[in-house]
Amino acid sequence: MLNTVALDHGWIAAHIPHQGSMCLLDRVVEWDGQRIVCEAVNHHDPANPLRDAGRLGAANGVEYAAQAMAVHGALLAQSDAAPTQGYLTSVRGLSLHTDRLDGQSGPLRVTAERQSGDARLILYQFSVHCGERCLLEGRASVVLDAQSL
Question: Can you tell me the distance from the alpha carbon of 57 to that of 2, in angstroms, rounded to the nearest whole number?
């Protein structure tokens, strides 16, 4: 069942390990058991912690996608417990369709869709769009509850 109740930045920060300016997502737009769609607007912010030499390269979109995956995990866990640490273990098939994220005029729309997985490892397909334009896409595997390994 598709959930369309928007969750804001405060909810996100309370449910994933990324804190302060490293919590990149502004809101959850929609989600269900397989997929999540989030938005972010801090790619315009000169104080974005991922900027290097005054620019935000497109490869940083992988971090936006990883945080969407973390939010998806928190939503599926449906727990108010402290967020557990997961780790991005690989990124495959990454296609960058732009050089930079900071030059995009609208919000970033970050989508992550679960392809397969179990209680310890999940494979997601992800993409980052601005409007109709796909900025980057790929697949990522995430190890959950890494401290138990």
Answer: 32
